[in-house]
Structure formats: C-alpha cells, structure tokens
Amino acid sequence: MYSVQGWIRVSLLDYPDHLCSTLFIAGCNFRCPYCHNKDLINKNGSLEQIAWGEIVEWLDANRRMIDGVCFTGGEPTLCADLESMIDDIKRLNLKVKLDTNGTNPQMLKRLLGLKLLDFVAMDIKAPLRKYSMVCRTNVDLQNIKESVEIIKSSAPRYEFRTTFHPSLLSIEDFYQICEWLRGAPTYVIQNCRTGDNLDPFFSRLSPASYEDVQDIASLCRKYFANFSLRGFTNPLRKPVGSFHRV
Ligand code: SF4
C-alpha cells in the first residue's frame, strides 16, 4: 500500500546535479544500526501518511522549479504502489531517482525496463560476507548481487555508496567491495551520522574523521573514476560533500 511519510519539497542534496523533491517511503527490511530514519522504517510508525494527491498537485505547480523527484526510504521498492507513483511523476515530465538497498532486483529490473528511472543509487552495506551482520537481518545475498548487475547493465545513471563507521567496516572490507564493484564508474563513501541512530549505542559514538578515511579513500580512487567522500570534514578545507540522510 502507498505510504509516503516524509517529504522535502526542494532538495539540493538528494539528486546529483539536480534540484529535486524528495519523498520518503515508509518501511524497510534492514535494521542498520546507524539508521537515522527509525520512525520511518517501521511501517506502522509514528509518522503520518502524506496524501499522494497533495504531492502531485504541488509537483505539477512547481515543475519548472525542480528537475526531478527522489524516492528514498526506508526501502522504496517494498511499496507496491511505487510503479504507479513513478508513472505519475513521469507524466509531469520530471526525472526520477531511486534510492535502494538492492533487496528487490525484480522491481529494479521492471522499472528500468520500462524506462521509469533516470538515476539509481544503491547502498552497498558491506562486503557480501558481512552483509547480514551490518544490516542486522538475514540478507538474501543473491538479490544483492543481482541488483548490482542489473544497475550496472541498465541504469542510465547510477552510483553505489557505502556508509562508513570504523566499528563496522575496515580497509580490508573496502578492498573486497572495490573488487566486487570493479567497472562501476561512481562510488561514494558517506560518513555515518551519529546522534539519533536506530541502535542507541551508535548515538554515543563519534563519527569517523577525515583522517580515519584517507587510506580507504586512496584505495577506492584506484578503482573508480568518480570517487567521492560525503559528510567528512577536511580540517584544511570546507566540509567535503554532505551527509546522506541515513
Ligand atoms: S539505513 Fe537505509 S537500509 Fe538501513 S535500516 Fe535505515 S532505511 Fe533501511
């Protein structure tokens, strides 16, 4: 059932090089300890559903101001109405970006086959051997691998990205991720925001520093033409990139 439970009307951060409107779909099948969307990941959580008609009406009235819509979550592919919502957006002649954890390759394949997606951003939570540990659930690794291949072969634009906290991932883990994703053009490491996380233990931790990630960044630069850091503050410069919401 349709369930948008968060909406940023205009965002500069959620769709690379585009001004977008960001819709948060409720529900997630992962339980990443650093998750910042804990009210959203339980489908029957405390947030109110936003009327789809209201969203479409606003987008229609403002479609000259924005370039597209970002569907994020939670995990948007769990929503049975996702395709019809994207159809409505496409009818407004707006681009669509999908953020996904990669657990639903069937839906990804269908949406890409129908040319409904302009950009896909997939979270790579860990090397495959650590996926279930980091996501704190029993993950079907075949689905994750399949999603990576579908995106690589058919998404018009895409990025893979990993949230980093030193208590979860090491440089050896990133080496395995780099080998797995080899050939992809774009990879991003985003800092883990700490403060209001799904696992309260993470709320008490410090985020990684710019120095903490330098060896890992050097490794990743060897594999990806477009590698970047988000949410890390270079002490010699202004902040590098922005935090991702989760
Ligand atoms: S971080 Fe993303 S994938 Fe993980 S629990 Fe939160 S919404 Fe789900």
Notes on the structure:
The protein has 246 residues and is of the alpha/beta class. The chain has a single domain (4-240), classed as Alpha-Beta Barrel (TIM Barrel), CATH 3.20.20.70. The protein contains 9 helices and 10 strands. Strand 4 (95-100), helix 4 and strand 5 (119-123) form a beta-alpha-beta unit. Helix 4 (105-113) runs parallel beside helix 6 (141-154) and helix 7 (171-181) packs parallel to helix 9 (214-221). It is globular, with a radius of gyration of 17 Å. The mean pLDDT is 93. Iron/sulfur cluster (SF4) binds at residues 28, 30-32, 35, 37, 41, 73-75, 101, 123, 246.
Please render the helix and strand layout as text.
Layout: E1 4-11, E2 20-25, H1 38-41, H2 52-61, E3 68-72, H3 82-91, E4 95-100, H4 105-113, E5 119-123, H5 131-135, H6 141-154, E6 158-164, H7 171-181, E7 186-191, H8 200-203, H9 214-221, E8 226-230, E9 232-233, E10 239-240
Parallel strand pairs: 2-3, 3-4, 4-5, 5-6, 6-7, 7-8
Antiparallel strand pairs: 1-2, 9-10
Helix pairs in contact: 4-6, 7-9
Keywords, separated by commas or semicolons:
246 residues; alpha/beta; TIM Barrel; 8-stranded mixed sheet; two-stranded antiparallel sheet; binds iron/sulfur cluster
Summarize it.
30% of the residues lie in helices and 21% in strands.
The CATH homologous superfamily name equals: Aldolase class I
Mean pLDDT: 93
The CATH class name reads Alpha Beta
- Could you say which structural class the secondary elements and strand pairing correspond to? alpha/beta
Cα-to-Cα separation, first versus last residue: 23 Å
CATH topology: TIM Barrel
Q: How many separate domains make up the residues?
A: 1
Approximate strand percentage: 15-25%
Low-pLDDT segments, ≥5 res: none
Strand arrangement in the largest pleated sheet = 1-2-3-4-5-6-7-8
